[in-house]
Amino acid sequence: MVQPDWPEDLVPLALDTAPVPAYGSASLADLLPTIASGQGVPGLHHTIAELGPADRACVFLIDGLGWEQLRAHPEDAPYLTSLLAGSLGGTGRPLTAGFPATTATSLASFGTGLPPGAHGLPGYTARNPETGELMNQLRWKPWTSPRVWQPYPTVFQLADEAGVHTAQVSSPAFQDTPLTKIALSGGTFHGRLTGEERMDFAAQQLAAGDRSLVYTYYSELDGKGHRFGVDSDAWRGQLMYVDRLVQRLAEQLPPRSALYVTADHGMIDIPFDEESRIDFDEDWELRAGVALLGGEGRARHVYAVPGAEADVLAVWREVLGDRFWVASRDEAIAAGWFGPGTDERVYRRIGDVVAAAHDDVVITASVNEPNESAMVGMHGSMTPVEQLVPLLEVRS
User: Is the Cβ–Cβ distance between 107 and 183 less than 8 Å?
Assistant: First the structure.
């Protein structure tokens, strides 16, 4: 085993300093069970104590709308800003997304009401223990059976079975994706192209039942952040647009309704310099003993060559330990990064080593991940800028 030889000025980050998501009380996974339990859906628990029940509930999930980014741009989002003080049931606090703070994981947590260690989507890419290949859990490549990969019912399915009018209103492109099937299915999917169409139809679906649970989604804020950064004109323009969308939906709420506005993660811009972007594909130390590199730049799953697990952990801690929380699989699980427990089928999907960014830094892979490596805005880790998301509320 490699013996760490720490430089005098390098102090590895203690794992207990990582701000673990608030699973079970104020995480994204707790939102739908709390809402649906208030509508009388059996088998679910009211875990966000601050939220009151509503006969009709709509969740508008805006991809990439982090709490800190929203608070930093009040002039671009006056309506959303006016709702900040009432976030999380009037406490003025955010939710935590879950780890890693990335779309595939967060949507699965949101839709199933389960943390990543249970639903089994522990990152942007993760190793399939059955094949040994990396699986992209957002694009679902290479193909694997969705119901084998994620066998639990969604909250929407449970609500539909309990007689709640249940609907998803989103882009038609998402209707038949595996991620939608395993995380967001139940009731009826309604494809609508424009944001305005989605808002109008979501309001109609809310009014369609005495008890209604409606989900709608907008992705382009995240896309502009990845491409141009979270303080770019393009990103701010999208923020202005979603601000108008939320107000449009809020003004159409039927009686006895609650609208919740939330997100799957925040985002941070990473400078294009060697200190901020560590290229795994060009770094012989980090590559040594590594069979596969999974996850994404700020939340890496590292899969070691059999027998090299301890050496890889030691080297990654020595090279990165003052800028990343670097844990073994068992340490990350024990620390609660993926929730209070991890299913057996999920255990080896998690990296032998898990590295979560603390500083403004990413581990890119210029050869194997050229598109992801070129992004300006990044996310995935447990820092507040990535982890905290709003839970804004409007009631009629």
Answer: yes
